[in-house]
């Protein structure tokens, strides 16, 4: 087996409502908001996941891990969601605008490799493509959610640690956990 091929987690946080946001927000303001929101996700991650790339409104995170922890990952997503929600509220108030963006997460697992082109590290493998395909789903009933693929769920020790949020089982895909809205304390 190639030493460059390893098992790991693919995590993609992605903004819902991004296309409309771009078309309806002034360029400088929109760029500032997106930079703030992506930065908060990276900061909250606290280097648990590595960044492969950032594209538009999504970050491709990964973590090589033969025994991923559902609890650690779900707690990370909860922290990211809460920080995102607080930052949107803070920006709404500071800029006197209404930012209609929410956050969805795709959590997938499998074997993938990494290669370099110049200063860039790119991920390669079926799980990377599958995670991107999962972004384009019609399953979600609410805009803020985490979709845990079956391959991720099967690789973890426990799957009952995601608070009391509503969930939706998708037998051929995985499970969607919806985020409850946190109270705004600003």
Report on the structure:
This protein is globular. The protein has helices at 18-24, 27-45, 70-95, 126-135, 150-155, and strands at 6-16, 50-55, 58-64, 102-117, 120-124, 145-149, 167-170, 174-178. The chain has 186 residues and is of the alpha+beta class. α2 runs antiparallel to α3. A hairpin with a 2-residue loop joins β2 and β3 (58-64). Mean pLDDT is 88; it is low at 182-186. The protein has one domain (6-178): Nucleotide cyclase, GGDEF domain (Alpha-Beta Plaits), CATH 3.30.70.
What secondary-structure arrangement, pairings included, does this model have?
Blueprint: E1 6-16, H1 18-24, H2 27-45, E2 50-55, E3 58-64, H3 70-95, E4 102-117, E5 120-124, H4 126-135, E6 145-149, H5 150-155, E7 167-170, E8 174-178
Parallel strand pairs: 4-6
Antiparallel strand pairs: 1-3, 1-4, 2-3, 4-5, 6-8, 7-8
What would the CATH topology be? Alpha-Beta Plaits
- Give the uncertain stretches in residue-range form: 182-186
The span between the termini is 52 Å
Mean pLDDT: 88
CATH superfamily: Nucleotide cyclase, GGDEF domain
Q: How helical, in percent, are the residues?
A: 25-40%
Number of helices: 5
Q: If classified by CATH, what would the architecture be?
A: 2-Layer Sandwich
Taken as a percent bin, the fraction of beta residues is 25-35%
Q: H/E order of the elements? A: EHHEEHEEHEHEE
Total beta strands: 8
Which secondary-structure class do the elements indicate?
A: alpha+beta
CATH top level class name:
Alpha Beta
Largest sheet: 8 strands, mixed
Number of domains: 1
Rg (CA only): 17 Å
């Amino acid at each position: 087996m190639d030493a460059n091929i390893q098992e790991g987690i693919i995590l993609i946080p992605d903004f819902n409502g991004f296309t409309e946001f771009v078309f309806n927000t002034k360029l400088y303001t929109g760029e500032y908001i997106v930079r703030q929101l992506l930065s908060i996700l990276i900061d909250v991650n606290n280097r648990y996941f590595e960044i492969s790339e950032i594209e538009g409104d999504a970050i491709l995170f990964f973590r090589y891990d033969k025994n991923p922890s559902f609890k650690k990952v779900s707690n990370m997503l909860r922290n990211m969601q809460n920080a995102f929600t607080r930052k949107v509220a803070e920006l709404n108030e500071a800029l006197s605008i209404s930012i209609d963006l929410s956050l969805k997460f795709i959590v997938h697992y499998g074997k993938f490799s990494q290669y370099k082109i110049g200063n860039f590290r790119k991920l390669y493998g079926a799980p990377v493509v599958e995670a991107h395909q999962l972004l384009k789903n019609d399953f979600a009933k609410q805009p803020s959610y985490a979709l845990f693929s079956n391959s991720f769920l099967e690789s973890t020790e426990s799957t009952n640690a995601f608070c009391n949020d509503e969930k939706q089982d998708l037998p051929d895909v995985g499970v969607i956990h919806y985020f409850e809205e946190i109270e705004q304390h600003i």
